[in-house]
Specification:
This protein is an alpha+beta fold and about 200 residues long. Helix content is about 40%, strand content about 15%.
Amino acid sequence: MLKKNLLSIAVVTAAMSLAACNDKEAVTEPVEPEATTETMAEPEVMVDPAVEAEPMADPMADTMATQTIAEIAAGNENLTILTAALQAAGLDTMLMEDTKYTVFAPTDDAFAPVLEKLGVTKEELLANTDLLKKVLPYHVVDMEVKAADIPYGTDIKTANGATISISDANVITDATGGTANITGTDIMATNGVVHTIDAVLMPE
């Protein structure tokens, strides 16, 4: 009887130690994730810094001026009246010279209110050379002034001797108190720069 009890205790003890061994194996078995950590490191090799550094072209590369101010005006479909007015007043040759100028160029739409105010047609305006010779030089400054260099809030002397002022909102005020918005800037010419405006500036 004692032997039987001892034998059964030994069997139970052996079974328990075998079960403990199996549990340890079950816990230590899933060591496979090492393979997954190796595969996760692979995408880092795909980064190629040379590809990112490539599209760094200079945006100013093709902005070299090739035309005079007069040629730019003549080739602009929105400046046909200004071009005709310059030619009628004989001022187009001035804007072909090597001297640096800044021109605040009224677009064709900018002339409409002037024609209405004066009660004349475009042809009649172009025939009035005395008026053109007074008004057109008022749109010209005898030096090159790019948009970044405009002296806001300061009187700017024009080619006809009168002054204009420009606010930091790019609004020009003329001698009569009229205003014009600068609608386009820095059209570079070989002899200066053109800024387009939406109204004709009038001297006193």
